[in-house]
Design goal:
With 507 residues, the chain is α/β, with parallel strands linked by helices. It folds into two domains: 5-182, Response regulator (Rossmann fold, 3-Layer(aba) Sandwich); 215-490, pyruvate-formate lyase- activating enzyme. The chain has 16 helices and 17 strands. The chain has helices at residues 29-38, 70-76, 94-107, 131-137, 150-158, 206-212, 241-245, 254-268, 284-297, 316-324, 339-345, 351-364, 381-397, 438-459, 461-473, 479-506, and strands at 5-9, 12-15, 44-48, 57-60, 63-66, 83-88, 112-117, 141-143, 172-174, 223-226, 229-231, 249-251, 272-275, 302-309, 327-335, 367-374, 401-406. The strands form four sheets. A six-stranded mixed beta sheet has the order 3-1-6-7-8-9, sandwiched between helices. β7, α4 (131-137) and β8 form a beta-alpha-beta unit. α2 (70-76) packs across α3 (94-107) and α14 (438-459) crosses α15 (461-473). Mean pLDDT is 93; it is low at 178-186.
Length: 507
């Protein structure tokens, strides 16, 4: 049967000078959800340009690109495909997405190109702020917010199956709408997440993700990304998520989550799960019920809160239950050691409570990561020194790793208009070399990492030794261990790809 709809996930983009904020291989979970919805009604194909060959890597301009080339991707698109849905996975993907759009339109002028956004990631982008750029390259429709309910409505309307006007579909931006001021911006959210089918991972080359040996969350075995909730109840000024979710947090029931675990175990023989929720613990009772159900079902699984957690939303008893149910890693985000900066960020955080919880997680065997944002507008040297002091306190308490991100203005954040100096949206990583104060912030970041390492060596020397063993065995308990491996591997992949290309060109 001929393909009607093609979903495209772009290649992985790394800014050459960024070893922290780009180059992370996130499983395309939103695209997998959409595939699960569309496969019921349409003849569907999925092309994961990164997953097809993540071992192919090359340098282009300021970037490292991993995956098949844009030209190879276009050759994989079925001529019968009428609609091509491009997944804007991260802000960094902007560089390659424009090329994919142009090449698609050159080869298939009549194909309708639809852009969807990743509304559940801090490195996603709110398309309503940059849609004109994609229209200029050749895209036809932009779908803002969550896409699983809107795409079927859009496709039905384009095929004449739905008599309602395009303007009545919330969150759709239509290139052919004469009055752009009337664009229907509000991006309706999905209220009942349990009603969604499980992501259709059978369309994706999971083996290649596993063979790669590194992921977003610390990888020890074959894994699959899971999203147990969506949105975030907070409204942090540096984050793009509020503009795409309207400050709404919704969650799946424990029963529905466990059914997905069981489905994945049965169909993919996977027992490691990386939770990519923005705030999975916002409802403590749900987490308690989930843990009890996992224990009751005797599921021998491990699960990791890879994208973050509001550590103040859970108590010590809940932590112990989470560990018993298989939780082995928790990332949380103080963002700053300065209460003044936290107020500027509109970020609530309890420093002393997080210290207490870090001690407890160290005691019961949950690996921990604390994330910080440097260079927020209004931050000064005194504020940064407070962050350094807090890092030291957390490290003494048993913190396993830190992540220091330099503030970058992603379209859709409240601080987007406060920065300038970049030439492409793909440069909006957490290592913004275009910032005038980048070198100053980078020096502070490096000195803070050094302080963390020295403090950890002094107070927890066996942890450092254990991390070296993990690095050698490729059984990662922290992202930092895995990041070292990733950087070395990507460097080798670039050399390998260059040699292969050189041999092919010499023939």
């Amino acid at each position: 049967m001929e393909t009607e709809v093609t979903i495209i996930c772009p290649q992985l983009i790394t800014l050459k000078e960024d070893n922290l904020g780009s180059g992370i291989p996130y499983m395309p979970i939103i695209a997998a959800y959409l595939a699960a919805v569309l496969k019921r009604k349409y003849r569907l194909e999925v092309i994961d340009a990164f997953g097809e060959n993540p071992f192919n890597a090359w340098i282009e301009d300021k970037y490292i690109i991993q995956g098949i080339t844009a030209e190879q991707l276009i050759r994989k698109v079925a001529p019968s495909s009428k609609y091509c849905i491009l997944y804007v996975s991260t802000i960094m993907a902007n560089y390659i997405l424009h090329r994919i759009i142009r090449l698609l339109k050159e080869k298939y002028p009549l194909i309708k190109i639809i852009m969807i956004e990743n509304s559940q990631s801090v490195i996603g982008v709110s398309l309503k702020y940059i849609y004109k750029n994609y229209f200029y390259s050749g895209a036809d429709y932009i779908v803002t917010g969550e896409c699983e309910e809107k795409i079927p409505l859009l496709l039905d309307t384009l095929q004449g199956k739905n008599k309602s006007s395009m303007s009545l579909i919330p969150g759709i931006i239509d290139k052919y709408n004469d009055n752009l001021s009337d664009i229907n911006y509000p991006a309706a959210i999905i209220a009942d997440l349990d009603a969604l089918p499980f992501p259709a991972w059978e369309f994706f080359p999971l083996d290649n993700y596993w063979k790669l040996g590194y992921a977003h969350g610390p990888m020890q075995n074959n894994y699959i990304a899971v999203m147990t909730s969506r949105g975030c109840p907070y409204n942090c000024s540096f984050c793009v998520v509020p503009s795409m979710n309207g400050g709404k947090w919704r969650f799946r029931s424990p029963d529905n989550i466990v059914k997905e675990f069981e489905y994945i175990i049965k169909n993919f023989n996977v027992f490691e799960f990386h939770l990519e929720d923005l705030n999975p613990t916002s409802n403590e009772k749900r987490i308690i019920d989930l843990c009890r159900l996992i224990i009751e079902k005797k599921l021998k699984i491990t699960w990791k809160l890879a994208s973050g957690s509001k550590i103040e939303t859970i108590r010590i008893d809940t932590l112990k239950l989470m560990r018993e149910a298989g939780c082995t890693y928790i990332s949380f985000s103080p963002e700053s050691g300065s209460s003044r900066v936290l107020k500027l960020m509109n970020k609530p955080f309890k420093h002393e409570y997080a210290l207490k919880m870090t001690k407890e997680m160290n005691k019961i065997g949950i690996s921990t990561q604390a994330c910080f944002v440097l260079g927020f507008p209004g931050e000064n040297c005194h504020d940064r020194n407070m962050t350094k002091d807090y890092v030291k306190k957390l490290t003494k308490a048993g913190l396993d790793e830190i992540a220091l991100f330099i503030m970058t203005p992603i379209p859709g954040t409240k601080t987007f208009d406060q920065f300038s100096g970049y030439s492409d949206y793909s440069e909006l990583t957490f290592a913004p070399t275009w910032r005038k104060d980048y070198r100053q912030l980078c020096r502070f970041r490096n000195s803070t990492y050094l302080l963390f390492l020295i403090t950890k060596l002094f107070f927890h020397p066996f942890k450092v030794l254990r991390q070296l063993v993990n690095l050698l065995s490729k059984k990662f308990e922290t992202k930092s261990e895995m990041n070292i491996y990733r950087l070395l591997m990507v460097k080798n992949l670039i050399k390998k790809t260059a040699k292969i290309n050189q041999l092919q060109n010499s023939r």
